[in-house]
């Protein structure tokens, strides 16, 4: 693991006049490969955030690791 120091760049706030802010966008639960994953929407949101000079915070669950057989078994569980 590499530890890297990053000094975030602040930008003019869009909510508070005369203030500075750092824009942080969380990316989580994409579930790439799952039927409900909207890749085009993800691309649109990432493009928007990059245009805003935002920083991204990755929170996990980027891919759908359940196999088709596991999905069937999981859908049949009654909790």
How would you sum up this structure, described in words?
The protein is an alpha+beta fold and 79 residues long. The chain has one domain. It has two helices and four strands. Strand 1 (11-12) and strand 2 (20-21) form a beta hairpin. The mean pLDDT is 87.
List strands and helices in order, with pairings:
Layout: E1 11-12, E2 20-21, E3 24-28, H1 39-51, E4 55-60, H2 68-75
Parallel strand pairs: 3-4
Antiparallel strand pairs: 1-2
Q: What strand order characterises the main sheet? A: 1-2
- The structural domain count equals 1
Give the low-pLDDT segments: none
Tally of individual helices? 2
For the record, give the distance between the C-alpha atoms at the N and C termini, rounded to a whole number: 39 Å
Tell me, what's the shape?
elongated
Brief synopsis:
This protein has 79 residues and is an alpha+beta fold.
Spell out the key features of this protein.
79 residues, alpha+beta, two-stranded parallel sheet, 2 helices, 4 strands, 27% helix
